[in-house]
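Revision sheet: structure tokens.
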Amino acid sequence: MGALFLPRDYPRIKVVESFEELLATPFGDGINALCWQRQLAGDFGEVLGHLTIEEGIATLDEASLPLLSLSGSGKVAVAAMLKDLWLLRNAGLDPVLDCVNGYLRDDCDGPVPTDVYSFHADSSPIETDTYLCTYHGASSEGLRNDQALRKVDIPEVRAALLESFGGADDEAFREHLSECCYDLHYAPIEAARPFPFGVGNLWRIAVKYPESPVPPCIHRAPQTHPGDPARLLLIS
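Predicted:
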């Protein structure tokens, strides 16, 4: 297996040994992230090299992947991705494969950008989880809950949001924060040490929903720069 650089003193993450364990392990006792650590065979970079990559996010047509003119190693990579899709769909989920060549950034001038480069929690009105796997490129990053502050709880940020809202700090303002997803975004404390999810590992992370037994897993897309390789990403 590949190296997995997780915070050793952080009990909210549990490493599992199989997809079955990833699927069946309940969140509880503080655990809000499960990681099936894997070292996948195959040349995922070769697969990328046979795709037409434009800026932004493109969902891959899985039916066309086996038709690419690939070496044996490239075909192994395709088979690994298609197997993950099958496993998740067989479990009743709705995964997609994305080629990510830069995300759209929040171009607002406000104090709380809400794009995926910001540390955030996923949310849902019903019980659900998020599954993530990076096959190629920089992986997603996690942030310990005890090293994160909700941006709306930082006094100067809240004051700026309140000024923009133009009202009192009351229930209407709190509803505004929720509707704009401001309350889902976090700032790392000064001593924070974000950790990579790693390439090839399949994660299941907790989402914010009513009566969730654990806090959501805080994460973000990796910072990217011109010239960085595109990412191959599974998400459900």
